[in-house]
Amino acid sequence: MWLQLHDGDGFPFFVNMDNVVDFRWYEREKYTCLLTTAPVAEKLHRLYVRESAAEIMKLIGEQQVRTARVTAAAVATA
């Protein structure tokens, strides 16, 4: 599942959440760090986004609902 998130400057980019293994909100710094399975120098790749972990969880839930509706509609018309 792809989500549109925003970098530190507010520019949007898309993240394949299927590759994210962990994400955490850092209150003092006001960013969320996402760890992905894409290796960089044999380490997990880190992405920093403006959205909080709670906002990301909400976006994931909304996308899951949309996907379920599309799947249900496709099954109903088949």
UniProtKB/TrEMBL annotation:
Organism placement in taxonomy: Bacteria, Pseudomonadati, Pseudomonadota, Alphaproteobacteria, Hyphomicrobiales
Organism whose genome encodes this protein: Rhizobium daejeonense
Protein's UniProt name: Uncharacterized protein
